[in-house]
Amino acid sequence: MVASVTKSQRAPFRSFCVLFPMFRLKTIRPLICLLVTVCVWTSQSLAEDTDFMEEFMKREYSLAKPYRGLGFSSSSQWDLMGTAMVTPDQVRLTPDLQSRQGAVWSRIPLVLRDWELKVHFKIHGQGKKNLNGDGLAIWLTRDRMLNGPVFGNMNQFTGLGIFVDTYPNADRTHDRTFPYISMMLGNGTLSYDHDRDGRPTEIGGCTALARNSVHDTFLLVRYSKNRLTLLVDVDGKQEWRDCADVTGLRLPTGYFLGASSATGDLSDNHDIISMKLYQLTVERTPEEEEEEEVTIPRVDNMEQFQVEVEEEGMSGVQFFFTLLFSILGLGVLAVVGLMVYGRWKENKRKRFY
């Protein structure tokens, strides 16, 4: 009985081998060995790729979970300032309360020439659209740990500022939608103009609907060979979208990374989940290697970013009411004038009687 069952089970396999000789038992064994070898080689390659990324992530410049000793331990590489506080899930720069300022700053100056910074952040709160504020900023500046009016940091800074602005201060918003991410290069004399949402000093930017998003929100800053690129991922598509690209931009080394935020009459929660910095390996020509390092940030062709911010003109409704009240005013003056003239003429007539 057992023998008959075994034969019946082998019959389909034998017929299959007769039809397809390449799948006979002697041939299958080498194929299996080849398949195993390919799988092992692939897994090793993936592991090597992972190690490659880990090798070039510079932990001394990075902020990521777990935030052990952040701001308190002498071994920590980051300092907290203002209302910033550490939770298990994020570094909260400001809570959803009015008139708060908070920041986190690296203690170690960045000495890399080519780098990439990936920031995982979150902005959320109870306020309705355009009734929230003010936003957060990512910094690479000469000075650190200084309070001020520019998203919680000093004005007239020296270095790079990237602003995630959630509230439109300017009356005219037809040229952009908020939240809006913009970049500014400060040389120690330029001021960020909050009333105009930084337009006069902006060197690039884009709209990024990052507030109260159901997806994780990221921005990526890449600096290599005097080129600064800004990309965003706020749509949950797991892909980077171009935001700004500036060539001929020169940044000194030895500046400090940081993030800050501020709230005023309006507020939001502003959280930093991680700031991971990667060193980029870039081939340079001998001329590029000998290129003189700058001490003050600059852009080779800054004139291309100069924005003529014109005074706001009157809207159609404002013009209509201005014209209407002007006509009514002239009418009133005309009636008063006629009444005065009539009385003067009547008094003059009485004198002759």
Automatic annotation (TrEMBL):
Keyword entries, A-Z: Disulfide bond, Glycoprotein, Golgi apparatus, Lectin, Membrane, Metal-binding, Signal, Transmembrane, Transmembrane helix
Bilayer-spanning residue ranges: 319-341
Cleavable signal peptide: none
Localization annotation: Endomembrane system; Golgi apparatus membrane
Keyword ATP-binding: no
MF term (GO), any: metal ion binding
Domain of life: Eukaryota
Membrane topology: Single-pass type I membrane protein; Single-pass membrane protein
UniProt KW Signal keyword: yes
UniProt cross-references to Gene3D superfamilies, sorted A to Z: 2.60.120.200
GO cellular component: COPII-coated ER to Golgi transport vesicle; endoplasmic reticulum membrane; endoplasmic reticulum-Golgi intermediate compartment; Golgi membrane
Residues in L-type lectin-like domain copies: 55-280
GO biological process: endoplasmic reticulum to Golgi vesicle-mediated transport
Full protein name: Lectin, mannose-binding 2-like b
Organism phylogeny: Eukaryota, Metazoa, Chordata, Craniata, Vertebrata
